[in-house]
């Protein structure tokens, strides 16, 4: 939580902040790249694809990633502006430094939301592979929208509680921090178990099947989240609970921004990879990943008959079809 505010305090007016300006410019490039990529995913899946249960999670995940990048991009703009105009616009400076502590809370909110959505996506995907007949016949019609809404609301309530405790100096911040730590550990274990079970079922079962493109994309999303996104959350929890950090703050921030930017790249590479060559447009690549064909062997148990959804909860759940 202390990275943003500490940065402002260490690199105030009159200090040598050249390195931090370079660092923030690099972060801005990552943010712009990630927002463009997630924007393309949102436009394509939101307006050019029929919604199946898994696309709903992908849409919400893209919203969380894009929001994380946008929040930090706006913070960097504010930081660079205050650094450049050091002794001007006093009112703006007072406002910026008084409310800058909201930035890490918003960032952690979106990172935790991504964790929850990836867990839900992985779990439902695993169930559709391990219990295809039950999944096809008994899955609730609007499950994806309901789960997405519950995840957004639960993470939001946790982070709002911690934020209010922080602002008003209440003693319950550590309690809420402990609860959200347990929440994150449970989701992480569930996500890991789901993906391992799915891969084992597909590759080591009695009828061995190759991994479909969507399976590969989901597994890669999870791997990169553990590698890039998890250190950001670990640092935040350690700082909140023990006033200490484990990873370098600047490195962790860059990894978190990369984690929010990498998913569109994964979708494109997985969708455009054919016979060890990468070709095809972005639109074609995304369609290959997210369109589940009945003729695909690995999708045959569940690709048809999965109930399409008409409404979803949460930021990207509007208009599930």
UniProtKB/TrEMBL annotation:
Belongs to the G-protein coupled receptor 1 family. Mas subfamily. It comes from the Eukaryota. One of its GO terms (molecular function) is G protein-coupled receptor activity. Keywords: Cell membrane, G-protein coupled receptor, Membrane, Receptor, Transducer, Transmembrane, Transmembrane helix. Gene3D superfamilies: Rhodopsin 7-helix transmembrane proteins (1.20.1070.10). InterPro entries: GPCR_Rhodpsn (IPR000276), GPCR_Rhodpsn_7TM (IPR017452), MRGPCRFAMILY (IPR026234). It is found in: Cell membrane. GO terms for cellular component: plasma membrane. It is a multi-pass membrane protein. Pfam families: 7tm_1. This is Uncharacterized protein. Its main location: membrane.
């Amino acid at each position: 939580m202390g990275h943003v505010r500490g940065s402002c305090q260490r690199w105030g007016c009159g200090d040598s902040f050249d390195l931090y300006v370079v660092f923030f410019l690099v972060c801005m490039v990552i943010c712009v790249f990630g927002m463009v990529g997630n924007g393309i995913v949102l436009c394509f899946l939101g307006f050019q694809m029929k919604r199946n249960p898994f696309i709903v999670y992908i849409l919400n995940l893209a919203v969380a990633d894009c929001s994380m990048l946008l929040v930090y991009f706006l913070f960097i703009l504010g930081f660079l502006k205050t650094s450049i105009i050091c002794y001007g616009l006093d009112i703006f400076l007072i406002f910026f430094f008084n409310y800058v502590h909201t930035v890490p809370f918003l960032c952690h909110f979106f990172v935790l939301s991504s964790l929850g959505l990836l867990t839900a996506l992985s779990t439902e995907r695993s169930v559709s592979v391990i219990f295809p007949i039950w999944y096809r016949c008994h899955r609730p019609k609007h499950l994806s929208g309901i789960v997405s809404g519950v995840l957004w609301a639960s993470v939001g309530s946790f982070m709002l509680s911690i934020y209010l405790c922080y602002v008003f100096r209440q003693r319950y911040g550590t309690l809420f921090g402990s609860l959200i730590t347990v929440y994150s550990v449970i989701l992480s274990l569930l996500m890991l178990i789901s993906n391992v079970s799915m891969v084992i079922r597909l590759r080591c079962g009695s009828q061995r099947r190759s991994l479909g493109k969507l399976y590969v994309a989901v597994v890669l999303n999870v791997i990169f989240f553990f590698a890039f996104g998890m250190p950001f959350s670990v640092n935040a929890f350690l700082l909140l609970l023990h006033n200490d950090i484990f990873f370098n703050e600047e490195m962790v921030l860059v990894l978190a921004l990369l984690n929010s930017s990498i998913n569109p790249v994964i979708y494109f590479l997985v969708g455009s990879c054919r016979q060890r060559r990468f070709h095809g447009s972005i639109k074609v690549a995304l369609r290959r990943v997210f369109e589940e064909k009945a003729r695909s062997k690995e999708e045959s148990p569940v690709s048809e008959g999965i109930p399409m959804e008409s409404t979803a909860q949460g930021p990207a759940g509007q208009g599930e079809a």
